[in-house]
Write a structure and sequence with these properties.
Elements (H helix, E strand, L loop, with lengths): L1 H14 L13 H12 L10 E6 L2 H10 L11 E8 L19 H23 L3 E5 L4 H8 L5 E10 L27
Antiparallel strand pairs: 1-2, 2-4, 3-4
Helix pairs in contact: 1-4, 2-4, 3-5
Length: 191
């Protein structure tokens, strides 16, 4: 059983592609709930679980979001958009005023981005394993996307994930071999 599970996970990783063309087929609520549940179960530093998810399904909501994501019109083909939002208040407990942006100096911001990215990738891999396709969107400015989704200024939008049934078969993109990126014991160390 263990080998079978390992193969399923590796298959989802190996077959995942960034898809930008979707079928006009809705994704039901139960399926979206399963994706969100997989993200909820992600690990986080000190178990802070800083993530929140904004699910956008309406035509108006998707158009509004696309307009702040550099007008990437192809995103409208996806029936579901999920904004993955990191909450710095999971680490900074006081009520001090914070306004997070791409240049925020607080160390905790890096921690919540890391943790929320793990949760977002759980969602992406779960989608792949369920026959859905996704694309990770990061081309937006915090101020604009927060305004579009009414997200408070002390939250940080890590990604928008498009979700739907693929109408495309993108080829795999080249990956560097392991020996170019793996080091043993120290940087540059050999096995």
């Amino acid at each position: 059983m263990r080998k079978e599970a390992q193969t399923r996970i590796l298959e989802a990783i190996m077959t995942r592609r960034s898809v930008r063309h979707y079928l006009a087929r809705p994704v039901d609520g139960e399926t979206v709930a399963a994706l969100l549940e997989s993200a909820r179960l992600a690990p986080s530093g000190s178990n802070t679980q800083p993530w929140h998810f904004v699910v956008i399904r309406s035509e108006t909501g998707r158009r509004n979001l696309v307009s702040v994501c550099h007008d990437q019109k192809w995103m409208l083909e996806a029936p579901v958009l999920v904004a993955c939002v990191a909450d710095v208040r999971s680490r900074i407990k006081d009520d001090s005023p914070l306004s997070l942006s791409e240049t925020s100096p607080e160390f905790e911001v890096k921690q919540i981005i890391r943790d929320t990215a793990i949760a977002a990738e759980h969602l992406v891999l779960q989608a792949q394993s369920m026959g859905l396709s996704t694309c990770w969107i990061g081309r937006f400015k915090q101020e604009r996307i927060r305004g579009a989704l009414r997200i408070p200024s002390d939250k940080y939008v890590v990604a928008v994930i498009t979700v739907g049934y693929s109408d495309d078969q993108p080829e795999s993109r080249p990956r560097k071999p392991l020996d170019e990126m793996v080091h043993f014991e120290t940087w540059g160390g050999q096995p």
